[in-house]
Write a structure and sequence with these properties.
141 residues, mainly alpha, 6 helices
């Protein structure tokens, strides 16, 4: 297999894991990804749109659904009233914690099959990959 195939398989497998964790909470995988992408101190809609690779109209519709579920709130930026920031509510924080716990259980199962040196190397490689992909996204805006 080549790198694009491996990354595609990894993405598909990880999406399936997220989909399963989300379904236990009556959420879609898209909703779970969005919740997991909102930092504790909130994020501007445009930043979240870029992070997730969604156009703003799609993200707005999805965020409105999460607002109806009381998982996020939307507030105008204090300095620039044109900008809306998204924050997790307490139920949203609880939901993210449940998703993350479910993912951690899966990660622990996967890591059981790897020796300690390989685990450490894998974490370092994944951090570098995420950084590289973030840089690529920034350069392709």
């Amino acid at each position: 297999m080549n790198i694009p195939e491996l990354l595609s398989d990894l993405s598909i497998n990880y999406s399936a894991i997220i989909r399963k964790a989300a379904a236990k909470l009556n959420l879609t995988s898209s909703q779970a990804f969005q919740l997991l992408s909102i930092p504790y101190d909130g994020i501007a809609m445009s930043q979240l749109s870029n992070k997730l690779g969604l156009d703003t109209s799609t993200l707005t519709r999805n965020i409105n659904n999460l607002i109806k579920l009381n998982l996020v709130i939307k507030r105008r930026h204090s300095e620039d009233k044109r900008i809306y920031k998204i924050f997790l509510t307490q139920p949203g924080l609880n939901t993210v914690a449940k998703i993350e716990n479910s993912l951690l259980e899966t990660h622990n199962e996967v890591f059981k099959t790897l020796d300690l040196d390989y685990q450490e190397s894998l974490i370092e490689i994944l951090q570098k990959l995420v950084w590289s992909f973030d840089c690529l996204k920034e350069n392709n805006r």
